[in-house]
UniProtKB/TrEMBL annotation, chain A:
Organism: Halorubrum glutamatedens
Top-rank taxon, per record: Archaea
Pfam families found in the cross-reference section: B12-binding
InterPro entries linked: Acid_CoA_mut_C, Cobalamin-bd, Cobalamin-bd_sf
Cofactor: adenosylcob(III)alamin
Domain B12-binding: 9-138
Gene3D superfamilies in UniProt: Cobalamin-binding domain
Protein name (database record): Cobalamin B12-binding domain-containing protein
UniProt family annotation: Belongs to the methylamine corrinoid protein family.
Keywords, alphabetical: Cobalamin, Cobalt, Isomerase, Metal-binding
TrEMBL record, chain B:
Residues in AAA+ ATPase domain copies: 72-316
Bias type Acidic residues, positions: 260-280
Name under which the protein is recorded: Methylmalonyl Co-A mutase-associated GTPase MeaB
Entries under InterPro entries matching the protein: AAA+_ATPase, GTPase/Isobutyryl-CoA_mutase, GTPase_ArgK, P-loop_NTPase
Length: 139, 390
């Protein structure tokens, strides 16, 4: 609850999954989310899908932003989603993917349950707006 | 989210929601959630902690019920200046506890931005030794601007982890400011981390955080100045024992935390125990230890010190005293918050604080008179109660 308590605090996990070591983008996103009033948990680099699942479940986040620049999204994202399903956390987690993803793959990821894929150069405002408008409702 | 906005509004204008907020009845849906938590569902545990953190209406019913299942975990607070290595140390401690078969819960409290309410909770990055191990339940909490509520929220989250069945629950927080001190005081055993070559810090520590330390840890002990910092801490710890400590024949060796009661045991047969010496005999002499969290050096000794302190608490009867003190503080905090909410409601009924302030400005009233106007009816209700009425 924020000081004024008018809005529920949105909790996000910004996750770096896989082998690529570029987390500048993830840092920028984390800071922008914070400035938007979200609570951001940052996973650190080189996480395995099961680490991401553990963090997302334990931190009870509303939003899971996965940053993948290695091109391995087609193998890594399904594993994360499977893990979330196993813990009953898939339904009410908004899953976003950031990185360079070909159009065909975007379609596939969305079919799996990814809410949106944000490519390079997406204005931060757009991402934040998307989160605000699509955060899953909770009872 | 929209569906919950109604609740949020109610929560913020404390007046309107006060009567609902105080309800300790367990709601049906929450009962289900609790059952799942007690059955071992991580998701349910995580959701319960969110409800505690958010003060979601009904959370009191949840926490009330959790109390029935809690009380078995060893609760350890870890505090220290930023950069002292708390997160890394907690990570290594968690791994060491896991190694001996204990399950672990961690609540890491991070300061949040006072401007936006947002926060980057970064402690999780350091939990490298325990990623993928679901039996380490790590939860980041932000120090949201709650009215003295941070320590209550933390204590409630610890209760949830305890009820879930965690053997050890660690609370990690920056040791700056009263609210953080309050947080760490909800632990049974408190470890204060100090950096080497921080002579000034030791001075500052004396100002308050020192009193709360059961164990002092010089982390990064491979750095220059560690010896000196250790010596300073040991000297300080001895001085803290107070003037009666000298009456105690043997001196508890600092750094030998395993037998805190050693020399006291002989005194127990003596009748002079009811004198003021009592305090000295039964007192715990804080352990001073060196660790290098990065490499894991000193971690086992540190856990030994925690165990020794836990044993001391149980055997000396301090544990129930510590917990009673904590419960007393919790009751006080809750009552203050609730009475404060009632007062806010009374203010709203009189047109709100702005209107009242305007009356003072126009010389129609004064702050004392207005305060009396608001509080007198509450006081009158209390006076009307017969003793024993509830």
């Amino acid at each position: 609850m924020s000081v004024e308590g008018t809005e529920r605090t949105v909790r996000c996990l910004v996750a770096k999954v896989g082998l690529d070591g570029h987390d500048r983008g993830a840092h920028v996103i984390a800071r922008a989310f914070r400035d938007a009033g979200f609570e951001v948990v940052y996973s650190g680099l080189h996480r395995a899908p099961e680490d991401i699942v553990q963090a997302a479940v334990q931190e009870d986040v509303d939003v899971l932003g996965i940053s993948i620049l290695s091109g391995a999204h087609n193998t890594l994202v399904p594993k994360v989603i499977e893990g979330l399903e196993e813990y009953g956390a898939f339904e009410d987690t908004l899953i976003l993917v950031g990185g360079i993803v070909p159009d065909d793959d975007v379609k596939e990821l969305k079919e799996l349950g990814v809410a949106e894929v944000f490519g390079p150069g997406t204005p931060m405002k757009e991402t934040i707006e998307f989160v605000r408008n699509n955060v899953p409702e909770r009872e | 989210m929209n569906g919950r906005d109604a609740n949020w509004g109610a929560n913020s204008t404390r007046g309107r929601a006060a009567s609902h907020d105080r309800a300790v009845e367990l709601r049906d849906r929450d009962a289900e959630l609790l059952e799942e938590l007690l059955a071992g569902s991580h998701r349910a545990l995580a959701r319960v902690i969110t409800k505690i953190e958010e003060r979601t209406p009904g959370y009191r019913g949840i926490v009330s019920t959790l109390y029935d299942h809690a009380g078995d975990a060893a609760v350890i607070g870890v505090t220290g200046a930023p950069g002292a290595g708390k997160s890394t140390l907690v990570d290594k401690l968690a791994a060491a506890y896991r190694e001996r078969g204990d399950t672990v819960g961690v609540v890491a409290v991070d300061p949040s931005s006072p401007y936006t309410g947002g926060a980057v909770l970064g402690d999780r990055i350091r939990m490298a030794s325990n990623v993928g191990d679901m039996d380490v339940f790590f939860r980041s909490m932000s120090a949201r601007g709650q009215l003295g509520g941070l320590s209550t929220a933390t204590a409630d989250a610890v209760t949830a982890l305890d009820a879930f069945g965690k053997d050890v629950v660690m609370i990690e927080t920056v040791g700056a400011g009263q609210s953080e001190v309050d947080v760490v005081r909800t632990a049974d055993t408190v470890a204060v981390l100090v950096q080497p070559e921080s002579g000034d810090d030791v001075q500052t520590l004396k100002a308050g955080i020192l009193e709360i330390g059961d164990v002092f840890v010089v982390n990064k002990a491979d750095m220059d100045g560690a010896e000196r910092t250790l010596a300073e801490l040991e000297e300080m710890v001895h001085r803290r024992e107070g003037p009666t400590a000298g009456l105690d024949a043997g001196h508890h060796g600092v750094g030998v935390p395993n037998d805190p009661n050693d020399d006291g045991s002989e005194g127990e047969e003596d009748d002079e125990r009811d004198a003021s010496v009592d305090d000295a005999v039964d007192a715990w002499t804080p352990a001073v230890l060196a660790t290098v969290a990065e490499t894991g050096d000193g971690i086992d000794e540190l856990i030994g010190a925690f165990d020794a302190h836990g044993e001391f608490l149980r055997e000396s009867g301090e544990l129930s005293e510590t917990r009673r003190r904590r419960y007393a503080e919790e009751i006080r905090t809750l009552v203050r918050a609730d009475v404060g909410a009632l007062a806010s409601e009374a203010i709203e009924r009189r047109g709100g604080i702005e209107a009242l302030a305007a009356r003072v400005e126009h010389k129609e009233a004064d702050p004392y008179g207005l305060a009396a106007e608001i509080v007198d009816p509450i006081a009158a209700c209390l006076e009307d109660l017969e003793p024993g009425d509830t």
